[in-house]
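QA checklist item 7 of 12: single-chain prediction sanity check.
[x] sequence parsed
[x] length recorded as 301
[x] structure emitted
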Amino acid sequence: MFSYIKHKDINKGKWDSTLERSSNPMAYGYSWYLDTVCPGWDALVSGDYEMIFPITKRKKYGIEYLYQPLFIRYLDVFSLKQVPNEKIIGELLSTLKKYFRFIEINIRGEFYNTSFEGFTLRKLMEQHIDLSKGIAAPSHSLKQNINKAAKAGLGEIVSMPTDIFVRNVQKELAEKLDLREDDYTMLQRLMNTCLEKKHGSTIGIKKESGDFYCGGFILEGFGQKILIKVFTTADGKKNGSMSYLRYNYLKSIENEKGYFNFGGSNIPGVAEYNRYFGAEDYYYTGVKHNALPWPLRLIKK
């Protein structure tokens, strides 16, 4: 059903065409997005690019394995004919384990209650808002933060230069994110590419000094707006700037067709904060396969 295609042999024109015409497109799947977050990715392809799946691989200790790249929450089979079902996902996973002895990726869709031989599955969560339904009135806690920001005299939402955004992310989140210097470079390159391709935006709340209280990078495409990364400075946390930014941004796109994806979280406190904005929980599937030799299996357990 699926054929393995090496990166150099992928027809990226056909790939992007299939993505755009598929029944389940998302901007994560563009070849240029994958090129940025996982250089050298391979592919599984069915027929004449009728179904496609990106192979996000790395090598360690001389062994290639599949991993979930930074800034992509989950992967998917993009199909011209139908949204992938359990049978298609089963055939996909069966094919993957022929090529890789270790796999740890996320797949869009609720397949965590299904049994796939050789795989361990997890239920993972994110939060969305259906923009066409309008934005709910803010909860009590959210309203307090918005009022705090208004009293502090916070201004309008403005766009942010990508270098300033990344510098703030690195400064404010370095301990939490545990990213390498190359990862921050990659984030800026990704942002620049998304902006160039008209598939992204950066938003922030600016101080009178010209610095920013907070900011967010949003991936856009196919009726989806996905919050990829945010930061808040110490001053911004004190005056409720992130709540102010998110709520006013959501009001600005209210009643558009599509969804705003908060990026999601399986951390209860973060998920609850997202729900303050009227977001609802949606689920996807964590997939793991470990058939490594015994000593390495313990390392990757």
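[x] summary fact logged: The radius of gyration is 20 Å.
[ ] second reviewer sign-off
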